[in-house]
Amino acid sequence: DEMADKYFLKIPPPINDDRRNWRYLYNGIWYAGKRRFDSALHYYHLFSFYAKAHGAGPLIKLDESLGNLHLAEKHFDTALVFFNEALRLSTKANDRNQVMKVYLYLSKTYNENGNYKEALKNARDLSQIANETGAKQMIRDAHFLLYQIFAHLQKTDSAFVHLQKYTTIKDSIDRDRSQ
């Protein structure tokens, strides 16, 4: 783990200024994955200057990343602020792939903080768009979330139906990958 850190940090920043700025975001994501949240916040802060100057795409990624960091720290209210802003920007930009990702994160956040009504709403919104677009991984993830939410609500019949659908689509994705 320390060896990976050592080599990761030795990678020189790209010469192109845009790429260097995006590297700040990726460094932040990497540190967040290592649960080194102060370092992640430092790099997100550096990326924020670029994001604010370059519009919706970078801002969406920044809000999504900050939301995930706060979700990992169980700061649910703060995570929801960032995810809702990412949803607003993604919807305005008509970026359906990003909208699906944000619905996934919103549903996970609400599920973890016990707000099952909102978790269910966001999981259903995710499921609807995923089915419309045919995004198999998102369809799979929506069914898994719906399974978890219905299990928490002790609606075992609904939970079981979504677990079956999750397993079917997961098996299909696994088969596609192995071919």
Overview of the structural elements:
The chain is mostly helical and 179 residues long. Helix content is 85%, strand content 0%. The protein is built from nine helices and no strands. The chain has helices at residues 2-10, 17-33, 37-54, 56-72, 76-92, 96-112, 116-133, 136-152, 156-178. Helix 3 (37-54) runs antiparallel to helix 4, helix 6 runs parallel beside helix 8 (136-152) and helix 7 packs antiparallel against helix 8. The chain is globular and about 50 Å long. The two termini are 33 Å apart.
Can you tag this structure with a few keywords?
single chain, 179 residues, mainly alpha, 9 helices, 85% helix, globular
Strand content: under 5%
Helix content: over 70%
Low-pLDDT regions:
none
The major sheet is characterized as: none
List the helices and strands and how they pair.
Blueprint: H1 2-10, H2 17-33, H3 37-54, H4 56-72, H5 76-92, H6 96-112, H7 116-133, H8 136-152, H9 156-178
Task: Give a brief outline of the structure.
With 179 residues, the protein is mostly helical. The chain has nine helices and no strands.
